[in-house]
Amino acid sequence: MSNMSALALIGVLSILCQWGAWRMKVPAILPLLIVGIVIGPVFGVLDPDAVFGDILFPLVSLSVAIILFEGSLTLKFDEIRGHGRMVTNLVSIGMLVTWVSIAIASYYLIGFGWELAALFGALVVVTGPTVIMPMLRSVRPLARLGNILRWEGIIIDPIGALLAVLVYEFIIASQGAGWTQALQAFATTIGVGFALGFAGGKLLGWALTRNIFPHYLRNVATLAVVLGVFAVSNAMQHESGLLTVTVMGMVMANMRGLDLDEILEFKETLSVLLISGLFIILAARLQPDAFNSLGLPAVILLAIIIFAVRPLSVWLSSIGTQTEFKEKVLLSWIAPRGIVAAAVSALFALKMQQAGWEQAEMLVPLVFLVILSTVILQSLTAKPLAHALKLREPPARGFLIFGANPTARLIAKSLKENKFPVMLADTNWEHIKQARMENLPVYFGNPTSEHAENNMDLTGIGNVLILSPYRQLNPVVAMHFMDWFDAEKIFALHSTEHDAPARNQLPEVYRKRLKLFGKGVTFSKLASLTFQGAQVKTTALTESFHYDDYQDRYGNRALPLYALDERGHCHLFSSDQTFEPKAGWQIVALVSPEQESEEN
Questions:
Q1: Which of 55, 403, 421, 430 could be cross-linked to 408 through a Cys-Cys bond (beta carbons 3.0 to 4.6 Å apart)?
Q2: ∠ CA 376-382-387 to the nearest 5 degrees?
Q3: Same-domain pairing of 347 and 440
Q4: 325 shares a domain with 422
C-alpha cells in the first residue's frame, strides 16, 4: 500500500470511527482501537512500519507533543482547589497510591524491571475527560459524584501526563549510568524542560495577548511555536521536549488575561484529523502474539488494577471527607483509561525499544488491554451499579437555554422559581454578565464545543430551548443536543418568512423543532414584547376559570410559554401540543403591560 493510499484509508476510517462513536454514544477511543487492530494485525491491510518507514517515529513523537500541550492547557491551578477536597485528594494522594501500587504489582506479576514497572504505573493513572464524559451522560450519577468524576478526569489528564513524562525522563537519564550521573542528567533535563517551557509559555502568551499574530494565524502560529520549542528543547537536552511542551501549556493555562477558547476549540479539529489517525496507526502496529504473550499474569494485574488499586485510591482519598460507603463503591468502579495512556505509552515504547529495552514491546499491548477492559467493562456495568446503589439522578427535568438575552433570562427566572434546573449558554459576554447578576447559572461560549462538554454542568438538564438570534448557530446547537437528549426534548423558535430559503436547507429533523410557543412565534417577536415591557405572569386555572376563560380574558396580548400540571410537570406550549390545560394547572405566559394595567 502506498503512502497516499494509506493516509487516505486512515483519514476515512478516522472519520467513520468518530461518527460511529457519536452515533453509539461511546468513547471514540474504542472504535479507533478496534478498527486499527482489525486492519492491522487481523487482516494485514495496513502495516505502519512498512508504509511510513523512518517518518513513523517523528510522526508519533510530534503527535504526542501536541496531545500533551493541548491537555496541559486545561490545567488551571485554581480549579484543583475549587472543586472540593475529594477531587484534590484523588489527583494527588489517589494518583500517587495508584502509581506505586500498579508499579509494584506489574514488577512482580509481569516481570518488568523497576524502570518499566514505574513507567507502566505512571501511564495508567490517567482517566481523562474523553472517556469519562460519555460514561457520565449514560450513568447520570448524583450531581456531587458526577462532578467529582468529571473534574478528576479533567485535572488528572495533564498531571498524570506530567508524571509519566518525568518518570520516562528519569529512566532515560539513568540508562547505563551510575546514580550520580543519572541524577545529574535528570536534573539537566528537568532544568531545561521547566526553564524553556516557562519561557516559551510566557512568550507565546504575551504574543497572543498583544495580538502579535493576526486572528487567522493564531491557532496555526501557536501550533508552529509549540513544535518549534519542542524541537529546540530536544536539541538542547536529549528527550526533554515532551516535558517542555507540557510545562508550556500549564504556564499558558494559568496566565491572566489570556483567552484560550479558540486554541482549545482548535484542539477538537486536531483530535479528529491527527489524533484519531494516530490511534489507528498505533493499534495497527500491535501483533496478536503480543497479547497472547501477556498471559494469565496480565489478567491478574488487570483485576488488581480494577478491583484493588482503584478502591484503595478512593478510600484513602476520602479520608476526612463526607463521602458515604456506597458513594465510594461507585467512585471506585468508574475509572476508564483513555487517550493520554494510549498515545504516550506507544511513543515511550518506540523510544525504549530503540534504546535497547527488551521488555518495552510489552508496554503498549498491556496499556491497551487496560484501556479496552476498563472502558468496555465499566461502560456496560456502571449504570446498573449506580441504579442498584440508588445513586442516579432522577429523570432530568431541567432546561438548557441557548441564549441569555432579556427574554431568555425572563423565562429562565420563571423556570428557576418553579424549581426547574436551568443553565443559560451564550457567546455574548454582556448577556452572560447580566444573567450572572440575576443569579442565573450560565456558560459563556459555544455550548457545542469540547470545552463546554468538559466544563458545562448539565446535571438535571433534560430539555433544550433555542432562544437566541444566532441563525447560523441555532441549528448546530439543536442537532448537537439531539444526540445527548431525546429529539422530542429540543425546542426552537419559528423562523421568519425572510429566512425561508435558509430554513428549507436545514435538516428535516431540525425543521420539525421550529414550533416553540406556537406557530409564528419568532425571536424578533419575543424580543419586541420584552422591549415593550412584557413580563412573565403565572395564572392558576380552577373549576370556575377554565383555559377557554383564560384565552378569552387575555386574547392575543398574552403569549403562553408553559403550563404546570398538578404534579408540577412542565408542558411547553408549541404549534403541535397535545395537552389541554385543566383545573389545578398553572399557565405561565409573557403578558404585555397593557393587559396588566387593565387587570389592575
A1: 403
A2: 150
A3: no
A4: no
Beta bridge partners of 491: 465
Q: Nearest-CA neighbor of 415 among 443, 441, 437, 447?
A: 441
Distance CA 292, CA 248 (A): 40
Cα distances from 547 to residues 328, 398, 537, 555, 578, in angstroms, run 50, 25, 15, 11, 14
Angle at alpha carbon of residue 351, lines to 347 and 356, rounded to 5°: 145
CB-based contacts of 102: which residues, under 8 Å, 6+ apart? 120, 121, 124, 125, 301, 304, 305, 309
State the Cα–Cα distance between residues 252 and 316, nearest whole angstrom: 32
The β-bridge partners of 589 are 537, 560
For the stretch 455-512, pLDDT in tens is 788 888 999 999 999 888 888 898 888 878 877 888 888 875 444 444 454 566 666 6
Is the pLDDT at 27 greater than 50? The verdict is yes
Mind giving me the DSSP string for 448-488? TSHHHHHH---TTEEEEEE--S-TTHHHHHHHHHHTTS-GG
Angle at the Cα of 574 from the Cα atoms of 568 and 580, rounded to 5 degrees: 55
Q: Express each pLDDT in 123-157 by its tens digit.
A: 999 887 778 888 888 888 988 898 899 888 888 88
- Structural domain for 435, as ranges: 398-591
57 & 148 share domain: yes
User: Which three three-digit cell numbers place residue 247?
Assistant: 510545562
CA gap 272, 17 in Å, rounded: 10
**Residue 500: which CATH number?**
3.40.50.720
Q: How far apart are CA 215 and CA 429, in angstroms?
A: 19
Q: How far apart are CA 153 and CA 504, in angstroms?
A: 41
Query: By C-alpha distance, which of 286, 272, 393, 336 is closest to 127?
Result: 336
- Which residue has better confidence, 378 or 578? 378
The three-state secondary structure class of 564 is strand
Distance CA 49, CA 349 (A): 14
Q: In this structure, what CATH number is given to the domain that contains residue 94?
A: 1.20.1530.20
* Same domain (yes/no): 43, 132: yes
Q: Are residues 367 and 428 in the same domain?
A: no
Does residue 131 sit in the same domain as residue 89? yes
